């Protein structure tokens, strides 16, 4: 067990990070991208020990971890490309008009880094949403130094990845303090990090309780700071009747595989399935039941998560009018999560708040709505979600415009005839949603737009060209897109 | 006196606004822009009564108010243009790759409106930062309905402007509830508005106390919402020695005119001037003194502001080692703000927090720093600012890179050899800054980027082309810029 970083060291860490910020923020977007690519290389070339350690700490299978590592390498490289492309800088130039009255000065604006960013990684993604994951990559692209608090569930893995980052930092001659790795199994270290005056932003992936606490600490500071917390959701799936009729068994198989993928330990796990009472829904429920029985229970990330799953699931199942459809029948052992599906009427679901909360694990609740009106009412009633999925024919999609609109207002990503698990790393991805899915629906933690969490605009008024940052110089030496006098262009200014 | 809107009406207001949101959010960017232009026209063609009423309520002179009205008309029209241009929508498309493993789905993302926005206008800008001001214009561009709480200092003016908006709304066949005007001299109405579950964002321009309260209420909700509060700042001016030497008297005149403009009632009023001890600074101080004596005291916005100015100013002047340089000598009358400048050493300034706070009115404090090191130390020590101004030769600017960097980290806009008052309405403007200048330095309240406060991304995964919003359709019917497979383009997809 790695010991907590002593609280008196936190101040040293932030002082060093703050100093690094003043150097690193001036590094060009090319230098930042090169650093990110060096981390990607180090991770790609890492020894087998890394995967082995992660397997021991998280109980995740080798294939999954190798895939996640590859995803993390891709993420670092693709955000590096985005960093260098520079669209995210939002360079805006309005040139002077000396003939207007009053005279208009030359004003140029771009996004600059906020300062040291504290990252709290996720238990369920030891690579992609942890130490060298998306948050760290976005912060480095933005020009911010990073302090990672190792997740106690995989602190050894985190340490190995941190070493790789430090190796890349040395290779790229990064300033001392560009990256710091700290440990904290207790709340104290997290609190000290978030409340330190030199911390300028926080990102987090995990539970509602953890994320909301960090958000509150961030807002209660003398100088409040942005805390982006992704806190999961129940990711409802809406089954429309015609689609369900034409693909009853296929949909049941598809959804069971999504519910049970990775022992249900994804923040996009579909924990709620809404259908309309009738024969097709009964057939679908039976088909799901048949599928789920054959799913072998697997070890969950750590005993705490398995315990929480067992408790939350039991709590949900003991609610009035909740019926179990089927449960995995294969033998289970310690810390394993057995898949289970239950069902309830729309009326009961609407009246019982507990049923609307996330059960992290291979569990889903099939809600039998009376009709499309009740399904729409539930859509309107739902809390904020990362994703909503709609299984529908094109005809149904256009007929149910009101429900689709309600769904859109409740989530960050709408999937048609697919599954919410599997979060593509691309610019168009939105991994964020209205509270409580995240603390600020205006941002994402997947895709290069995630950089925007860690930057703010600064305008230069009446500045001499040669002293402007390269991004804003007349010559456009970085060849980036800029909005000049309201027109997006890569052109230079003047001759 | 207009009576407070009864608290029981607030729920009706939000219900209506929420209903309007579902209709208005689907209006095209062209329809939104046309509505904004109709408001601009109604304001432009408004009767003399509007200016007369504003003069009575705010004591601002006719010329200033006519100029501010024209600025508001320009603002509405230019944000309408930006709305229609659609760059702000951040349309992103990643097309499907069926040959990759796993297959990549088609994902398309754009910004969508948050929902009803509550606007709290400013006392000092009855037009440009109030009822039909920048916040309202940005919210309408975003696709959000607006609820304005009339500023108690100019509630009649606000009512007249609200009537113009309603007139434009009728002309453009906007949904009922697109705009609502409420009254509230007490905290109760504001609190009910911010805490109502259907309120999805808040914007505010005014004092620290007011803005911070709204921010806290917004964060304490069951579903926290973004509250963008612009709370003013002291807008420091850094005088570098060579520049000061070559233009001593000109700089004194320029700064006195900026300090006393509009009786100092601007959030960009330069309330702090930093120079380096020496003959030039003494000459500058004397020249400022001569100038200030001749400034006629004018009526402030309302008696409360005049009283607060007198009290805060007295409090600052009674601090140890603060010396008055000069005060306006012309006769003053009720509710007038007499200009005054005082001076103090850098050491005293650094050790006394009270001197670092805003005195809203025609007041400025000249801080005599020992040397450039002390000036840099003060730059590093300052709270977040809307603006910082540097008076320097190009040589000094490049020599003092460390200080410039410190200044950049403390503000949203850096002005070289100009004055901070006069906030240009253009895309490159940043009117926002680190806390306590605003509650979120990542946003601006001036310029079309202000729209981004009120929108969030939504991704459509695997959606059929004809059911996508026009912004994301293959054909690009709106001819907007979009990022397709990581490339910014106006091209359509396919043939």
From TrEMBL, chains A, B:
It comes from the Bacteria. Residues 9-432 form the Aldehyde dehydrogenase domain. Pfam families: Aldedh. Keywords: Oxidoreductase. GO terms for molecular function: oxidoreductase activity, acting on the aldehyde or oxo group of donors, NAD or NADP as acceptor. InterPro entries: Ald_DH/histidinol_DH, Ald_DH_C, Ald_DH_N, Aldehyde_DH_dom, Aldehyde_DH_Superfamily, ALDH_KGSADH. The keyword Plastid does not apply. This is Aldehyde dehydrogenase (NADP(+)). It comes from Ilyomonas limi.
